[in-house]
Design a protein that fits this description.
Its EC number is 1.13.11.1. The protein is about 30% helix and about 20% strand. Helix 1 packs across helix 2.
Length: about 240
């Protein structure tokens, strides 16, 4: 089946059969994605057994709550950042801290403070190094931004995140700090470690098929926002981690 025939088939099944009000944007996206999928089946001679195995995999990934992890692991989230960077460049938007992927493990509602916060609950302070995170929020011209909302979160010494790891206290290693009158914020926490995908999970199973490891270097996540400014999603890695590249 050639592409014209595929497009006609997809239109017949997903456009011509509409009998109720249509969300035009959803229809546009679905029609394109389904047609591209059909084309891939033609080009790669994907067999019915492989199609059903793929659907079974997606079902299992959803049950395991790993679809967000899969999006990061296969590069989808990074691709979205690259598209945003490209759009900024075309619009002449330059400077500032680079954006980086959010990842699937953010939780809203972390305790708030102004200027300073201790992020850890003390449960690992006896065997992990203390990490002091500090910075100043400014615009791209260096002007201080007071009362900027700095949301910070990271993994514990076992590479696990609170809420997803039920052994941790609520909001452990998650805080929201509003910058002070000098635009500064300081967080005291424990040194995070890198981690990998769940070794028996669906994401790692696919990465194994691709000959890839699923490890991340040690890192700390950020959301930074303020009225009148675009929200920044970014993170920093801990220097010296073996998985930096």
């Amino acid at each position: 089946m050639d592409r014209q025939q595929i497009d006609t088939l997809v239109k017949e099944m997903n456009v011509d059969t509409a009998t109720r009000p249509v969300d035009q944007r959803v229809q546009q996206i679905v029609v394109r994605l389904v047609a591209d999928l059909f084309q891939a089946i033609e080009d790669l001679d994907i067999q019915p057994s492989e199609v059903w195995k793929g659907l079974e995999y997606i079902t299992d990934a959803g049950k395991a709550n790993e679809l967000g992890l899969l999006a990061a692991g296969l590069g989808l989230e990074h691709y979205l950042d690259l598209r945003a960077d490209e759009a900024d460049a075309k619009a002449g938007v330059t400077g500032g801290t680079p954006r980086t992927i959010e990842g699937p493990l953010y939780v809203a509602g972390a305790p708030e403070s102004v200027g300073f916060a201790r992020m850890d609950d003390g449960s690992e302070s006896d065997h992990l190094d203390t990490l002091i995170i500090e910075g100043t929020v400014t615009d791209t011209n260096g002007n201080i931004i007071e009362n900027a909302k700095v949301e910070v979160w990271h993994a514990n010494g076992l590479g696990n995140y609170s809420f997803f790891d039920k052994s941790q206290s609520d909001f452990n290693l998650r805080r929201t700090i509003f910058s002070d009158t000098n635009g500064k914020y300081v967080a005291q926490t424990t040194m995070p470690v890198g981690y990998g995908c769940p070794p028996d999970g669906t994401t790692q199973a696919l990465l194994n098929k691709l000959g890839r490891h699923g490890n991340r270097p040690s890192h700390v996540h950020y959301f930074i926002s303020a009225p009148g400014y675009r929200k920044l999603t970014t993170q920093f890695n801990i220097e010296g981690d073996q998985y930096l590249w």
